[in-house]
Description:
Layout: E1 2-9, H1 13-36, E2 46-54, H2 57-60, H3 81-94, E3 100-107, E4 112-114, H4 122-137
Parallel strand pairs: 1-2, 2-3
Antiparallel strand pairs: 3-4
Helix pairs in contact: 1-3
Amino acid sequence: MAAIEFKSILGSFGNNMNNRTEEALGNATDVLHAAETGLLGLQPPWLGYVFLMQDEAGSRSPVRVKEPHFEVDREFRGASYQRRAMLLCRRLLMKRLYDAAWFVTGEPLEGVVCEPAADLTWAKFEAALRGRVAEILA
């Protein structure tokens, strides 16, 4: 019925952001391929993506880009890792790889949580999941 991928980054934002992006793309592509080939029943599962990023100066500061071979997408110029994570979540939805995404920042040891993007909130994520459950139960 549904599969939810939970990912987080706590430090080492540069390396970890690339890894989280590759994992999100690969996992969704694998599940959707399995659904297309009939391995998961008659209907593909609803896919959710939850991304928690540590809220600290390193995740909020603009990231320098290098362009030795190709021009960087303009949306990434001067974007922080938090901004890049929001872009990832939005693009995963736009490409229909996931049905909903929730992006959260926080400081785990302090219990502080923030939803910096109005379109990537728990309320929207939960509503989408409840919609899927209602569809199946109907």
